[in-house]
Amino acid sequence: xxxxxxxxxxxxxxxxxxxxxxxxxxxxxxxxxxxxxxxxxxxxxxxxxxxxxxxxxxxxxxxxxxxxxxxxxxxxxxxxxxxxxxxxxxxxxxxxxxxxxxxxxxxxxxxxxxxxxxxxxxxxxxxxxxxxxxxxxxxxxxxxxxxxxxxxxxxxxxxxxxxxxxxxxxxxxxxxxxxxxxxxxxxxxxxxxxxxxxxxxxxxxxxxxxxxxxxxxxxxxxxxxxxxxxxxxxxxxxxxxxxxxxxxxxxxxxxxxxxxxxxxxxxxxxxxxxxxxxxxxxxxxxxxxxxxxxxxxxxxxxxxxxxxxxxxxxxxxxxxxxxxxxxxxxxxxxxxxxxxxxxxxxxxxxxxxxxxxxxxxxxxxxxxxxxxxxxxxxxxxxxxxxxxxxxxxxxxxxxxxxxxxxxxxxxxxxxxxxxxxxxxxxxxxxxxxxxxxxxxxxxxxxxxxxxxxxxxxxxxxxxxxxxxxxxxxxxxxxxxxxxxxxxxxxxxxxxxxxxxxxxxxxxxxxxxxxxxxxxxxxxxxxxxxxxxxxxxxxxxxxxxxxxxxxxxxxxxxxxxxxxxxxxxxxxxxxxxxxxxxxxx
Length: 584
Prior knowledge:
Layout: H1 3-27, H2 30-50, E1 55-63, H3 72-79, H4 88-95, H5 98-108, E2 112-117, E3 122-125, E4 130-134, E5 145-152, E6 155-159, E7 165-166, E8 182-186, E9 199-204, H6 207-217, E10 219-222, E11 229-236, H7 239-297, H8 308-339, H9 355-374, H10 383-425, H11 433-467, E12 473-481, H12 490-515, H13 522-528, H14 555-570
Antiparallel strand pairs: 1-11, 1-12, 2-3, 2-9, 4-8, 5-6, 5-9, 6-7, 10-11
């Protein structure tokens, strides 16, 4: 147990000695470390000087819940904290959809990218001093077409990829230049002379690839799990370009949501306007028949009935009118569903007093809107579209069945009311036949007038809803860009350069030392074996030319004297005066 501290201390000293030896081995080559660090830091500086500077822009929007009419059950759920939640994943997919992003590309002409060409570095810009208007269809461009644009005193010179030069006439910017797929003009108030010596590059990109590239670069995420706020981020070399894209995307997304809600109101307005034409003709016909009947029968007015029997009859007639009203409206809805062949929107809230039937119509309209959004982006035989078509057909059948059931119930109720009306009318059996006919005409007129007024009221409601449609998003922050670029990062680049400068010479020396199998010094032999003694060490001098003398006190002479002494010590004693021979 007493030998343990000595052993541990011995090992620690040996390990410390090995570390010092290794450090000395590498520090002998310190100039290489200094040179490598200097070169790597210089390369890092060069990279920072010419690498594209990328900025990150961010915008935030809050999605507004579109549901405005909720039943009692959903209201109770919302009070308990279990109300309807907005599906942010759906909103993110809409924001990144090809349909919305293509509107942004069209609005900002992003399929034409502009660059300022430098001696070494070319950077993308957003607002060059000129404007370009394409004269070819967007689908006709299959690959990027670059054009070099130079401004000077003589005007504009354009060179394409085939080194063909064009000189557009700036005095007639709308006049197309032969061979150029676009026209170019200077921004108002800008003289080309001020931009002399600056070279620009304009690239006409395929429209589809531009939209898909924007979809890849755009990042849309939710700020938190329970939040209705979405964060939109975009990275590029131009701050202004990032902010313009984000702001335009918010505008197009909001317009799309508003348009969806306006489509239902517009369809209701169109339907009611069509019914007004038929009702006007029917009312004119009834009023003309009433006038002719009165004139031919010398009738000026119907005498007012008195008593409880008349009141009872009037109440019954009002109920009959309401039921016939509902029957007429349900038949109109049924006709619209049967005659519709293109899966268009159905009129909503036209006065049917049946909640389940109204819910079926609302559900059908939501699926029809989804189909209209999907149709421009997929083919007619797409499985999703075919599935929607099947759902719409089933929804039509359900609506027709519900209308039939509702109509049967109304007719049964109407039959009972008419029986009651007949019993109440027996009191007036003595009235002249002409008076009964006139009342029948007036009743038909009252039905049509009530229906006309009801549709007029619904039309006003739809018109108000169409005119004051609320936005679908609330802008929390428009596009904002941090002045500090996200790439390249100076601190990280210099740190990696410094590490690389230290690592590269260390790696080279490590490999060199690992592959070196030569013996350079006494320690190399002692590491390999301890059984063979070392007799002496002779130093190596490149410039040694003189012969060694007996009285020479140089290092070389001393080394040979030590060698001779050690050899004599190791050799056995001389036998009978014979000399000893050492072979080297």
